Amino acid sequence: MMFEPSLIEQDADGFRTCGTCLERKPISEFYKDGIDANGNPRYRRDCKQCYRISRLKSRRGVK
Ligand SMILES: [Zn+2]
User: Fold this and answer.
1) Mean pLDDT confidence for 32-58
2) For residues 15, 4, 36 and 12, what is the CA-based torsion angle, rounded to 10 degrees?
3) CATH number at residue 23
4) Could you give the CA distance from residue 27 to residue 17 in angstroms, rounded to a whole number?
5) Which of 1, 4, 11, 57 has the fewest Cβ atoms within 10 angstroms?
6) Residue 47 C-alpha to ligand 1 middle, in angstroms?
């Protein structure tokens, strides 16, 4: 079952919930991923920590 996109939208107070570890973290803990149609920055759904972990895993050939 997929997460609904609305569950991982950016929160109003500068925090958002990571789509991988589901922890609530400041927006600075997420990498930017372009801008949306309104010119607002978009962020990856996984936090920097999870992104780093997933990169390490993929480098070792582990999913
Ligand atoms: Zn995370």
Assistant:
1) 92
2) -30
3) 3.30.60.130
4) 9
5) 1
6) 4
